[in-house]
Amino acid sequence: MTDFKQLSRYGILDAKVPRYTSYPPANHFNAQVGNAEQSDWLRAVPEGASVSLYVHIPFCKRLCWFCACRTQGTSTLRPVESYVETLLREIDLVRARLPQDVKLSRLHLGGGTPTILSSALMALLLDKIFANFEKGASFEFSVEIDPTEASPALLDTLIIYGMNRASIGVQDFDPRVQAAIGRMQSFQQTSDVVHHLRSGDLDSLNMDLLYGLPLQTPQSLSQTLQEVMSLQPDRLALYGYAHVPWMSKRQVLIDEAALPDPKMRYDLSEIARVLLTSDGFEQIGFDHFARPGDGLATAKATGHLRRNFQGYTDDTAEVLIGLGASSISKFPQGYSQNESATAKYVAAVEGQTLAGARGYVLSDADRWVALAIEQLMCGFQVDIAQLQADFPAYGPAISTAFAQLASAYPLGVALTGDRLSVNPGFEPLVRIFAGQLDVFQAPQTSHSSAI
Ligand SMILES: C[S@@+](CC[C@H](N)C(=O)[O-])C[C@H]1O[C@@H](n2cnc3c(N)ncnc32)[C@H](O)[C@@H]1O
Ligand code: SF4
């Protein structure tokens, strides 16, 4: 039996599984956790703690058909300007609840398209953030950049304010694939932005790529990867295209007949993995690659790799504060998500209240599962003895859960002594193995496919 046959027996072609950027996944958050809990959890952050900030900019000038991100189209800067005004107020509301001497570990601007901001608006936002949050010793500042919507002046502003990590959306360079996903972006446009960014003090340049797009073939993906590698990124995120038109309505514009079938999706992901690793990239978790020496590769080597709402990260701050519509904050006590609709988010903040609308209070029964899933997703193994030492009340439950996982997937994982490891070749199934520990995971179609 080939490896692929075994992978498909274990569900790689048909399982629908969360990406586990949090546990429990955000679709299990509830409205009992609102801005009162968000406020209490902000006030409970200890003096001297490291916190990270995620700022969501939910606007784009173009709406790419494939995109499943929380964003909205705008042809003018007017709504963006008033949204930034609201963000400034939200920063005041959040800062007033935090102790005086918190240190900023990471600042990440994501979207949507953060680079839609004018230089002046970006400067206004960054001045406000840096006036309120003192940078910690290993501070990093990262931004998601759409190369078709990033003026040289805006890039210069980001460089002046110390952006040291940039993430560029590429997806695919083949013009036929680009036309099929409603996102035209030339190699030259992308290359110009890369060269501009390299003129600053950039420590790490990431590019986002997708496999499983309509009309993608092994040849077209290999060609895209050759072009991407010629731009010498330090990191690559290689996501499987999530076709979820019931959640992301604009995806109805995608011709489903042109989508690769599950076996081709698997082949495309393997082709990319082999090409990238033979070019010297290290695989990080199940969907990232990094050059040795890049922060993510170092975090993997030293056991500091973590998972958060942006995917894999080397940030070890215990508190992540999400600002803006739909942003999620993570606290030791649980998760808090802001109002998703921009109008409701603005109304909350303009009414001088925090915008937390839903969330989740973590119990110890959730915490050990969350930690085990994070370890599986980051290092493909779990130190069961350590987990039981950290959660003594759950010792027997932990033993039972891992024994059940090993007996459900005897070829996929190995249970040796006090350690569970994913067997070589079965890494693409890690989300399915994680799902076995997930007590919320019931048969459902709302998630994307396992490959
Ligand atoms: C929020 S987008 C920001 C990128 C930026 N606006 C741009 O267009 O370059 C971040 C990334 O999410 C990924 N993404 C968006 N929709 C996706 C989908 N349906 N399936 C998988 N990944 C997706 C893409 O790789 C994209 O670059
Ligand atoms: S891929 Fe980027 S530019 Fe396109 S719709 Fe999504 S967030 Fe907007």
TrEMBL record:
Instruction: Give the record's pathway.
Output: Porphyrin-containing compound metabolism; protoporphyrin-IX biosynthesis; protoporphyrinogen-IX from coproporphyrinogen-III (AdoMet route): step 1/1
Q: Does the keyword Cell cycle apply?
A: no
Q: Which GO terms describe its molecular function?
A: 4 iron, 4 sulfur cluster binding; coproporphyrinogen dehydrogenase activity; coproporphyrinogen oxidase activity; metal ion binding
Residues engaged in binding S-adenosyl-L-methionine 1: Y54, G111, E144, I328
Localization per record = Cytoplasm
The UniProt entry's GO CC annotations, sorted and at most eight, read:
cytoplasm
The family database entries (Pfam families) matched by this protein are listed as:
Radical_SAM
Requisite cofactors = [4Fe-4S] cluster
Q: Which residues bind [4Fe-4S] cluster?
A: C60, C64, C67
Does Electron transport count among this protein's keywords?
Answer: no
Q: How is the cofactor bound?
A: Binds 1 [4Fe-4S] cluster. The cluster is coordinated with 3 cysteines and an exchangeable S-adenosyl-L-methionine.
Supply the PROSITE patterns for this chain: RADICAL_SAM (PS51918)
Reactions performed catalytically: coproporphyrinogen III + 2 S-adenosyl-L-methionine = protoporphyrinogen IX + 2 5'-deoxyadenosine + 2 L-methionine + 2 CO2
Keyword line: 4Fe-4S, Cytoplasm, Iron, Iron-sulfur, Metal-binding, Oxidoreductase, Porphyrin biosynthesis, S-adenosyl-L-methionine
The chain positions of domain Radical SAM core read 45-287
UniProt binding sites for S-adenosyl-L-methionine 2: F66, C67, A68, G112, T113, Q171, R183, D208, A242
Its BP terms in the Gene Ontology are:
protoporphyrinogen IX biosynthetic process
Cross-referenced PANTHER family: COPROPORPHYRINIGEN III OXIDASE (PTHR13932), OXYGEN-INDEPENDENT COPROPORPHYRINOGEN III OXIDASE (PTHR13932:SF6)
Q: How does it assemble?
A: Monomer.
Free-text function comment from the UniProt entry: Involved in the heme biosynthesis. Catalyzes the anaerobic oxidative decarboxylation of propionate groups of rings A and B of coproporphyrinogen III to yield the vinyl groups in protoporphyrinogen IX.
Family annotation (NCBIfam families)? hemN
The protein here is known as: Coproporphyrinogen-III oxidase
Which species?
Answer: Sulfitobacter marinus
